[in-house]
Specification:
39% strand; 38% helix; globular; alpha+beta
Length: 147
């Protein structure tokens, strides 16, 4: 169960990094807006709003996590951590037609909201996105702890 919680935090970081890396117009701006909304949703403890940006056919953690499991994982993180902090490194975004790939390094920390976090780790995250009309949806994500 701890591994699943960690995986959910990693996915969140990867998505947030993608938002900060989008600097070109059009599709990248739509990706940025979606990821900013996801970031706001987690900060405001609304995992249901976050999951709205995740595709129905989402798979993560090498196929062991579907959309419903990710939603449950995020709800668990919100309940477990009064505060979740995310620090993102530079992101690499590649858009190819109706698909996008985002690679990023993210540092996640959580805890009761005190001055020092109680838990934290650094992850390398790669997420895949699909354009659905004018919106982007995350369809897959893989992550590995790097520190």
């Amino acid at each position: 169960m701890t591994r699943l919680r960690t995986l959910g935090r990693l996915l969140l970081l990867g998505l947030l990094v993608a938002v900060s890396a989008c600097t070109r117009g059009g599709d990248e701006q739509r990706l940025r807006a979606a990821l900013e909304d996801m970031h706001t949703a987690i900060e405001q403890r609304r995992p249901g709003d976050f999951i709205d940006f995740v595709a129905e056919d989402f798979t993560g953690a090498e196929g062991t996590l579907d959309r419903a499991a990710l939603h449950n994982l995020l709800r668990g993180q919100v309940l477990r951590n009064e505060r979740i902090d995310v620090v993102l490194g530079p992101a690499d975004i590649q858009i190819q037609g109706d698909r996008a790939t985002v690679s990023v390094t993210a540092t996640l920390a959580g805890g009761s909201g005190g001055w020092l976090p109680e838990r934290g780790a650094v992850y390398a995250i790669t997420s895949g996105w699909r354009r659905d009309g004018g919106d982007w949806r995350c369809v897959n994500a893989q992550w590995r702890q790097s520190l």
